[in-house]
Amino acid sequence: MARWFESFQSPATVEPTGSGGAPASSVGGTSPLSVLRSSAARIGTTLDEDTTCAELTQEVAGQVGAAVAVLRVRGEAGSKYEAVSGNPAVLPDARWAEAVARKAAGLGESGTVQAASGGPQPALCVPLAVNQHRYGVLVCAREGAPFTRAEADLVTFLAERAASSIRHAREHDAVSGIVGKLQRALLAEPGRPHPNLDVAIRYLPVGQRALVGGDWCETVRLHFGRTLLVVGDVMGHGLEAAVDMAAYRSSLRYIASADLPPHRVLRQLDDIASKEPDRRPATCLIARVDPVRGLVTLASAGHLPPAVIDGQGRASLLPVPVGPPLGTGLGGYEPATYPLNPSQALMLFTDGLVERRGEDIDQSLHRLAGLSFSAAVGVEDVLDTVLARLDATDAEDDVAVLAARLQRRSAHAHDMQRSTTRR
Question: What pTM did the predictor assign?
């Protein structure tokens, strides 16, 4: 950069041109250093490698008045130009540029090569490299005078800027890949409910790169045909919340094996989490569905109440005593029991389904309760309807939602189940 700046100020040197073909030093009356900074700022504006290459070729083409392209040697035969700016017919044969790129790799720090390209037009080959990391070569060609030393230094500087951005982009992709693998390892399918219960579950993590966050759903088979339905929401987002989510799910499955009522399951979950200082707090709602008795027993740790959809498709909320979130060590959870019949669908959800920025939570819940559904629709249809009408794909938080409905059974099967339960 210093070499270019000194030659740029020399009256004996041909100055690089601006995007309109005028000398860069005269563009807008700004100083050469300001022009250089502006040029560099227009390269690497995203973490996308292809976008960076396009920005580089467009900027260089405007500065030196040449056709510019990137040649990324990807390890296969027949490498070709990419992100071409200017007239591609001016560019030298890609095989020649590839050979020059290999030669440039052994020339030391800059590796810039200016040579005849087998035709009348001069060509400039600049490696896309930074800190021994090489990503390809930038090729410039134009009809007329060869490139000046000042232009070569300018192009080299901008190529280094692009190479640095490419390195950051690849490191970001590598880290994202690791995070993705960890998230996939944390993904655990909910257990299977008893056959007497239809269950559907949807999970929508917030953000484009996330696979799983702090929201979760779980189903656990219990004795006598009962099933435990659970939704939880760990504070925060991303991998850290997902790790704690996995810990809560693991604890829940262990505790549920003792077939405790929902409020006592919450009490033990809270006790375990409160003894781990790094564990994030979480809200949780547990519903124990008893198809034989036609009952659902609920308990809440700081979670929103469930909704029930009746046989006419009308939604309402079931009041549940709300205890403190898990991880506080305060306990104090109480159960609430309601009748549940096959004409009704029970829906548990996390706050991302209903909450909207700047809106009171009571208003959000009122909007959910105001939804209407087709009579006696299946649980998958219930979730399709609620996610579409509440525009859950654009939610600002993770969304986990679970719907369940008792299966209708014949009177004979019902009597057999009651007889088995008494024994």
Answer: 0.60
